[in-house]
Amino acid sequence: MSETMIALVTGANKGIGYEIAAGLGSLGYRVGVGARDATRRETAVGKLRAVGVDAFGVPLDVTDDQSVTDAAELIERLAGRLDALVNNAGISGEMDPGWVQDPTALDLEVLRTVVDTNVMGVVRVTNAMLPLLRRSASPRIVNVSSSVGSLARQADPDIEIGPIMAAYAPSKSFLNALTVQYARQFAGTSILINAACPGLVATEFTGFQGPRTPEQGATTAIRLATLPDGSPTGSFFEDDGVVPW
Prior knowledge:
40% of the residues lie in helices and 14% in strands. The protein has seven helices and eight strands, in the order βαβαβαβαβααβαββ. The protein has helices at residues 15-26, 38-50, 65-78, 108-133, 151-154, 168-185, 214-225, and strands spanning 6-9, 30-35, 54-59, 84-87, 140-144, 192-196, 236-238, 241-242. The radius of gyration is 17 Å and the shape is globular.
C-alpha cells in the first residue's frame, strides 16, 4: 500500500471485534479500536500495539448520538479519512434459560434495547462516518450479522438454527435488510457494503460456547473489509459463501 489504510472496528475491545482489528492491523491498516469501556479499550490497544499493529482507541457508545459524533471528529483529527468501517458492536439482549427469548412473553424494553444497539447503532455510526469514508478511494463497510437473521434458514424446519431468539434474531434480519438498502443507495459509487456471519464463536457473547475461535469468526469480516474494487455489494456472506436472506 502506498498510503496507510484506516479502519474503525466497533466493539473491538474483545472477542470477534478484537480479532477483526488484529487481522486488519496485520494487513497494514491503522486501526481505530471502538469501545465504550475505557479500561478494556486501552488494554486492547496495548495488546495490538505489542504485536505491531498501529492501533488507537476510539471512545464509542453506538447507542449515544454525541459519542458517535465525537468518535467521527476524533478520527477526522487523527486520520483525516476512513477506508473501512466494521460495525461489529452488538448485544443479544436478556435471555431466559437455554438462550431463549420467547416472543409470546417478550419484554418490549429488551427488544428496544437490542434494536437500538444492533440496528440503530449501525445507522448512527455509518452515517456519522460517511463523510470520512467518502474521502477514501475504495471505502468498505461491513455489518457483522448472524445466520440466525436469515429468514430462509429460520423458516426451514430441516435446518438446526438454534433456540428461539425473538429479539436478537429479528434484529439481525433488520440489519440485513438495512445493508441492502444502503447498497442500493450507494449504487454507482465506490462504496461497497456487505453483511458478514462469523458463525458460532466461543466468546463472552456466547458464554464461550461454540466450535469456532474468535480468529475464525473474524475471517469473513476481514475479507469483506478488504475487497477489491468491483466486488459484490449488498450481500450476506459466511466462510462457505453466500448466506440466503
